[in-house]
Amino acid sequence: MDIKQIQELIKFVSRSGVNEVAIEQENFKITIKTNQTPTVINTTVPAPAPAAAVLPAAPAPAPQPVTTPAESKEAADASKYITIKSPMIGTFYRSSSPDKASFVNVGDEVSSGKIICIIEAMKLFNEIESEVSGRIVKVLVENASPVEYDQPLFLVEPM
Asked: What is the reported pTM?
């Protein structure tokens, strides 16, 4: 990692609101800490390849799907639901451990502030709380699968 990449990483960390980032490669280790107040959202920065740029590339626009009448009816039904989205990048878990019951299942009622899942980011297990009250209609993510920031996790029918 050269000095320009380190400077870009420092700028990225200061803009993102992350308090600490640590990168470790074969012969190189760097930890960048800021004096900002802690935020709830954790951001991970993948360790770049030696010649790779530090800043993430913008995602390519997704092609527009062709909508059939059945899909448009399903979309109209989904519009009455509230989507709970991931507040961070990480790994989605429905329970606190493999031998424990899921926090919520389809048909369960949730209230604002109730823990609905865990997202692991950088070895930190973040309890995600519902921001809405209602009934879980659909779980949109498989257990132990990676999730992106703002990815839909649950559909909730408001009460």
From this structure: 0.53
Residue 21: closest CA among 29, 93, 64 = 29
What DSSP designation does 60 have?
Answer: P
Over its C-alpha atoms, the chain yields an Rg (Å, rounded) of: 19
3-state secondary structure 21-57: EEEEECCEEEEEECCCCCCCCCCCCCCCCCCCCCCCC
Identity (one letter) of the amino acid at 130? S
Q: What is the pLDDT along the chain (159 residues), one digit of tens a residue?
A: 677 777 777 777 777 667 777 777 777 777 777 765 554 444 455 555 555 445 555 555 555 555 555 555 555 566 789 999 999 999 999 999 989 999 999 999 999 999 999 999 988 999 999 999 999 999 999 999 999 999 999 999 998
The two structure tokens encoding residue 67? 């909508």
